[in-house]
Amino acid sequence: MNIIIVLTPMIGTIFGVMYFYSSREFTELLLAQPIRRTTIFLGQYLGVALSLTMSLVLGLGIPFLIYGIAQSSEIWNFGLLLLSGAFLTFIFVAVAANIALMHENKIKGFGYAIFIWLFMAVIYDGLFLISLVVFEDYPLDKFSLFATMFNPIDLSRILILLKLDISALLGYTGAIFQKFFGTNTGMFASIGVLLVWCGIPVFFIKRISEKKDF
Amino acid sequence: MRHFIISASVLLCLFLHINYALGTVYEVCSSCEKTSITETISLASPGDTLLIKGGVYQEGEIVIKKPLVLLGIDKPVIDGGSVAGAISIFADSVVIKGFIIQNIGLSYTEDYAAIYISKSKHFIIEDNELKNVFFGMLVEKSHFGRIHNNIVSGEVKEEHNSGNGIHLWHSDHVRITENHLSHLRDGIYFEFVSESHIANNISKENLRYGLHFMFSNNNDYYDNEFINNGAGVAVMFSKFINMKRNRFYKNWGTASFGLLLKEIYDAEIEDNIFEENTIGINIEGSTRINYRSNSLIKNGWAVKIAGGCYANVFTDNNFIGNSFDVSYNSKMNDNKFDNNYWSSYTGYDLDKDGIGDVPYRPVKLFSYIVNQTPETIVLLRSLFIDILNFSEKVSPIFTPDHLVDATPKMKMIND
């Protein structure tokens, strides 16, 4: 599970940034052709994101299929794991594409990309933890629910956690999460949030690519 | 005819290896001379035997006020009709064996039981099946009894309107063996009970506790299984309890425990297996308890220690694959951990003596934080938390300083 929620976003960001920088000359060549800009950039984005997703799904799926996951009751949880992994790839590749398009300087771009990943995977949780500890006298259930919603890595971690029987450990706080995420509305809401998380950076790719001077 | 019955029942009793003094033997069945248990009891004199044959007996509450032996043949059914209790015993040396007792009334003011025993000595309750009960057996101020091989099941849904399987109050020297208890409030409940033994029982899917001690000193429980209860066993306000070779399995839920200890002193906890419980052992205000050779496997918290626990000693236990090995809510520590096996121990053993060279710190920083602010549990399994735990392991600041296992075993302890 840690592979999915920590490594997948990292691979997404790094490969995304790398691809957009190294294919710059090819992009310029394409821009000279009579093709719409959105098509080029969204095509590039989808190419990277889809291939990374495929490698994740096939790479994890085939060994587990051979291992016999299809017959076990874990199949749905495993599906959710792959689904959230795919979402994370899409989100972070889009974020990386934004960074690469915004910054001409390669080093700067890489720096930002790695920072974004580090922020989402580690620093965000640290801030979250500090705020929980500092404001422990206040009711924090709603806050923690929102805080998890705003970070795709946390959101997928909680989604997977709640499907595992380890969720009983979450106790009283977990009960609130379970009540929210356990229902269909909660499930759709969190998938919706992940979709929004995909949508916003993709929208920015579109906007930047239309205005950017090459 | 009568002669024949006596000799037949003598043969039967010999066959069953029972050495009851038979007295006069009365036979009760739908086609017999006597068709009512209540009437036959009123005819019988102390020490007599009633043979009750298969069939359904719905006679309201059957009251026994003299020493009698009631033997069920072909599992006769005593139906309480969901009104009140079924059998009440107010005499010494009563034997109830081989019955099915069912449909006990539910009440908010009376404790209706399938078998109610009051101020009795040397009672034997054996091989009965108690179905859909409110209380299964309610034993008050009774001594030297035996409860063996009964199946007790209820259909409880809520705690406030349910009863216990075997409920003892102010009793002593009672042996409770090989019973099967399920779907009750508490499987077995002890209040002011002493010198009693509980062995080889299976208590499962009970709403509250599999086994519950309150103010009961000097008792033992051995070789029992507690599966999927609200909490496996709760021992509260009791002294000198021995707990050995029990299995606590899948007591899993947001507020579930394998073993809950509250205000208990001088207990021995040995060779038990705690597997897949939310909290393996929850300890509060308990002192001088020895934990030896237990296995704690795949629990959420293996051992959760709250305030006021002194002089507890953990030796030769296995801690395998628990989310948190030990959790503490204070910096004070007066408990010892020695020679345990910890699956998350990462140290080495250069001199190959089977004992790790680096001490193991069972309390992780995250478990400390979770104790302070329970909401932080939502960060479980986050990368940040792993980093945090690692840094605390390298330089401990928050977790109790002396709480270490200085001699952690390198290999699992098998007895």
What does this structure look like?
The complex is a heterodimer of chains A (about 210) and B (about 425). Chain A has helices at about 1-20, 25-30, 35-65, 75-100, 105-135, 140-150, 150-165, 170-180, 185-210. By secondary structure, chain A is mainly α. Chain A has one domain (about 1-210). The longest helix of chain A is centred in the N-terminal third of the chain and has 31 residues, at about 35-65. In chain A, about 35% of the residues are buried. The mean pLDDT of chain A is about 85. Chain B has a single domain, classed as Pectate Lyase C-like, CATH 2.160.20. Chain B has a 14-stranded parallel beta sheet, sandwiched between helices. Chain B has a 13-stranded parallel beta sheet with strand order 3-6-9-12-15-18-21-24-27-30-33-36-39, with no helix packed on it. A 12-stranded parallel beta sheet of chain B has the order 4-7-10-13-16-19-22-25-28-31-34-37. The mean pLDDT of chain B is about 90. The interface of A and B includes residues 122, 123, 126, 140 and 177 of A.
Q: Based on Cα principal axes, name the global outline of chain B.
A: elongated
* Succession of helices and strands of chain A: HHHHHHHHH
User: In percent terms, what proportion of residues of chain B is strand?
Assistant: 25-35%
* Main interface: chain pair and counts: A-B, 33 and 26 residues
Strand order within the widest beta sheet of chain B: 1-2-5-8-11-14-17-20-23-26-29-32-35-38
Highest-level CATH class of chain B: Mainly Beta
Tell me about the largest β-sheet of chain A: none
Our count of helices of chain B gives 4
Q: What multimeric state do the chains show?
A: heterodimer
Please report the total strand number of chain B as a whole number: 39
On the 0 to 100 scale, the average pLDDT of chain B is 88
The percent of residues in helical segments of chain A reads: over 70%
Largest sheet geometry of chain B: 14 strands, parallel
pLDDT average of chain A, as an integer? 86
Helix content of chain B: under 10%
As residue ranges, the low-confidence spans of chain B are none
- Specify Rg of chain A, calculated over alpha carbons: 19 Å
Structural class of chain A: mainly alpha
- How far is the N terminus from the C terminus of chain A? 41 Å
**What is the total number of structural domains of chain B?**
1
